[in-house]
Every structure is written in structure tokens, then in C-alpha cells.
Amino acid sequence: MASGKVYLIGAGPGDPGLLTLKGQQYLADADVVIYDYLANPVLLGHARADAEKIYVGKVRGHHHLPQEETNALLAEKAAAGLQVVRLKGGDPYIFGRGGEEAAYLKERNIPFEVVPGVTAGFAAAAYAGIPLTHRDVTTSLALLTGHERPERKLSSLDWEKLATGLGTLIFYMGMANLKTISAELIRHGRDPQTPVAIVQWATLPRQRTLVGTLESIVADVAREGLEPPAVIIIGEVVNYREELRWYDNLPLFGKRFLITRPRAQAASFVQLLQQQGAETICIPTIEIVPPKDLAPFDDALRQLAGFDSLVLTSANAVSAFFQRLKENQLDLRSLAGVQIVAVGPKTAEAIEAYGLAPDLVPQNYRAEGVVEELLAQGVAGKRILYPHAEIARQLIVTDLTRAGAEVCAPIAYRTVIPQGKADMIRHLLAAGELDAICFSSSSTFDHLLAMLGDELKQLQGRAEFFSIGPLTSASIRKHDFEVALEPEQATLDALVAAMVDYYKQK
């Protein structure tokens, strides 16, 4: 039996982008993922589809699985020869009981590795605009837990040293004891007017930051209704927040969007949205697979020298074309003398990634634009290769054929509905946790409708629908759903810019 191993991985404080590259790689290779309450469930998207996923979350007052059973579960899975990831919020060794889990594994000779994570206190301060140290204010800080073992009360802390001997204090899990923390620090000499920041749901678009003083903070929290999870930051450094805050000033801060395009193609879109402060959840409603019969496509590729133009209308078509070119033991030399047409800038970028520059990119980033530009050149007697999706408009084929061209249009790829995604989307919609769903093609909407059926109509109004362009909008409206936003140009950059403007005006 292969040797099993446990990886104790810090998932970071919430923002999925703060997971380390090493943690992401181990997560992708894991046979079993055991995760807790503060590990962003979006991170599970890095795991293999066939990996076993076990929730052992802990919320104050309720343990989904007692710590002793979690320890035993880790050992059991690893002893069975499996690669086990224990995904923990923040850093495993900072108030995360990772040390206890590691010790349990060590006692049983179970191999383990620890992958550090961004701890919540550091991340909360950074995302709230608070430098934990500053040479003009303080060069010392302390990390403390406000929730220890029952037999170790907060009163056992050396409050006098904490109050007068250290600059910045960061309390984890201290909301239930905030009154005691404030009172003890004041009683032992800390100025009642010392600034305090409470950062709730740090690094996520739902983040809230409340600033007060040691004297006022208990009443401030009660007034605003802040609850855990939250980090308490105490010290003069809190005064820098108004000057240095950046995250909660971003235009899409606090917004959560569902991205329905395949994960590999969603990266640039996600990056654009996150740069504007949005939270993105990638749950593809389409999966790109090869056509059922590759023979027509392969036959066309072996005759590339006989074509005048190659028309590519999506990044998927680009990927499929160059993949089959390689499978047929052909290379870029086969395209010598062939005009390469890209439907728009994103398709052009995909082509350029293979070392080629498109000869033609129309001003109108749609099939109509391709047809218009080619007709202007004259296509009579020309042979045109147009590899496309199984479900695609026939405009290019019909209009160019009518003008005298010979159009070879093999199916290059098809889209299918991914398995196991419907429940997660259903939950997000039912819980009202989405501001909008972003559709980048008609297929992304059509497949979502197929996945949820009548439930999508019942959940209408729980999230707005944003469309990349008129064709996608037409597919949405055909089923009596409302399109809240459509940019002037059918590009992801234009869609993000339109989203920023949309929320500025609301």
C-alpha cells in the first residue's frame, strides 16, 4: 500500500487568493480534503472532482465533529495510504489547534507536513488599512486569543504587561469577552481613549470595520450588531485607517458574483473583478469537450495549405484548433499563406499565445463583424476554414457561401453540462448570497437553466443577470428572465467597466 501523508494547510483568512501556491498544489493532489468553518469553501474548487471532501467545521457553541474525532479521522485516512489535506482557516499553528493535530499524528508515526497560511490578524489589519507596526507609533505587537480552554480564564493573562508593555494588541476569538478585555486593559493603565478596530469577515467583500476606543467599543459593537468571526486590533496604529484604507474603497467592494464560464477561461475575468473589490465564485455551467467525431476536423487540418482563411470565433476554438494541429503532427508552418481571422481582442490574445498574430480583427466583435470584413475583401472562389462549436450560429457559413466562398465548418468542440455543480448554485441563490450571475455566452445561461429547471424561475430575483452581449441577452430574455446589465461592447473588460458604473449609479 502506498504511504499516506497529512498536509496541514493554512487556508488564509477568507480571500481565496491568499492561499499559498504550495497549499494550492497539495490541495489539487489530495485524495481527501478535511476542512473547517473558516476555510473558504471556494478553495475546494482546487481539489480533484473525485477527492473525498469532509466538513469538520467548528462554530462557537457547536462542533460539527469533536477535535478528538478529527484527529482520529486524519490518522485513519493517512493510514489507508491516502494523501490527506487538512484545510484550516488562517495559519495552522496560530490559534488553529494545528499543533495538537500534528502531535497526534507524530505519536502514531503518520507523516505530515505543515504549510503556513496568512493569519487572520495580519490580514485583517492589512485589508482594513491598519499597519500593525509603525516606527512613529510602535515597534511591538502581541497576538492573543480571547477564547482559551475553560480552565484558563482571561483573568490569568498578565494584563499589566499587556496594557503598558506592548504597542499593538491583536485578539483572536475575543468578541464574547470584549467587555472584559476592554475593562482589564483600562484598569491596568491603558488609556481609555486608545483606538480600537473590530474587523469582521476580514478580506472578504462582506468585511466590516468598526473603529472606536477602549472606553466606547463595547457599546459601539452592540449598536452596530457586529458578531464573530472578527479580529480585535488595539493600539495607536488604528488611527492610520482613514489615511490608508484601500480595500473597502474599491468600487465593487461588498459585491459577490457567480462566474459561469469554465474555470480555465475565467481567470482574467476573475482578476478584473477582484481588482475592483468584488468576490467571485467560479462554478462553471459549461464544460468544453471534443466533438463526438473528430474525423471531419482532422481531415480539414490536413488540408490547411488549400485554405485562404482561417476564422476563429472564440478562445475555445483557438485551443481546440492548436490541440488538434499538434495531435495531427502538424505545426505553425502549416498556416503559411493562410489569413488568420479573430472575432475579437480576446480571441486574438489566445492566438497570439501560440506565437501568431491575427491578420484581421473586426471592429464589431461578433460573427456579423467577421462577415462584413471578409465580404469587403471579396470571398468569391476563396476557401475558408471555420472550426466552431457544436451549437453555433450558421451566419458565417450561410453569408460567406452565398457570396461565393467555399466554407469548411467542422465541429471543433462541444459544450456539456458539468456534473455536481447544481446544488452549490442552488444553495447560493436560495440563501440570497449572490448579487449577480455573469453570463459570458448563451451556453452558460442555457446550461444553468437546464441544471436548475423550474427552480431558476422560482429563485428569480435572488440575483441579477449580467450579460456580455446581445446574443447572450437574447437567450436569457427568450425564457422570460430580465437582463439587468449588458455592456456596449461584448468584451469582459467592457462588462466589468459597465458593472462598476452600474453600482456607482445605484
What name is given to the CATH topology of the largest domain? Methyltransferase, Cobalt-precorrin-4 Transmethylase, Domain 2
Content-based structural category: alpha/beta
| CATH architecture verdict of the largest domain | 2-Layer Sandwich
CATH top level of the largest domain is: Alpha Beta
Looking at CATH, the homologous superfamily of the largest domain is Tetrapyrrole methylase, C-terminal domain
The helix count comes to 19
Cross-sheet strand order for the largest sheet: 3-2-6-1-7
Strand content: 15-25%
Low-pLDDT runs? none
Per DSSP E runs of 2 or more residues, the count of β-strands stands at 23
- Write down the domain tally: 4
Give the proportion of residues in helices: 25-40%
Give the overall form: elongated
CA radius of gyration = 28 Å
Give the mean pLDDT.
Answer: 92
- Measured between the Cα atoms of the first and last residue, the distance is 60 Å
Question: How does this model look, in words?
Answer:
The chain is α/β, with parallel strands linked by helices and 506 residues long. The chain folds into 4 domains: 5-117, Tetrapyrrole methylase, N-terminal domain (Cobalt-precorrin-4 Transmethylase, domain 1); 122-249, Methyltransferase, Cobalt-precorrin-4 Transmethylase, Domain 2 (2-Layer Sandwich); 256-286 and 417-505, Rossmann fold (3-Layer(aba) Sandwich), CATH 3.40.50.10090; 290-415, Rossmann fold (3-Layer(aba) Sandwich). 35% of the residues lie in helices and 19% in strands. The protein has a 5-stranded parallel β-sheet, sandwiched between helices. The longest helix has 14 residues, at 492-505. The model has no long low-confidence stretch (mean pLDDT 92).
